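W.,

You were right to be curious about this one. When I first looked at the sequence I had no strong expectations either way, so I just let the prediction run and decided to look at it fresh. Below is the sequence, 80 residues in total, followed by the output.
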Amino acid sequence: MQADEEASTQLFLNGMFAISVDRDIARVAGLLLNERRRRGRPASVIDTMIAATALRLEVPLITNDIDYFGFPGLTVVPGR
């Protein structure tokens, strides 16, 4: 990070919060992984955990990664 980027980066990070993966999120992720594999469209574990978190919290996922469109029930909002 450049010295002049530090303040804006810190401001951005201050608006974030962490979500712990609990059993419910892990269960949803497992179901999603199995469904994608069954359909012959495997997904990465991290992408699946992110999708499962959004599904469990009932929030849309804002992303530029079109791979998320393959998760049933997930509302995806394209990023910029």
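Here's what jumped out at me. The CA atoms of residues 20 and 53 lie 9 Å apart. And, maybe more interesting for your project: The radius of gyration is 15 Å.

Coffee later to discuss?

I.
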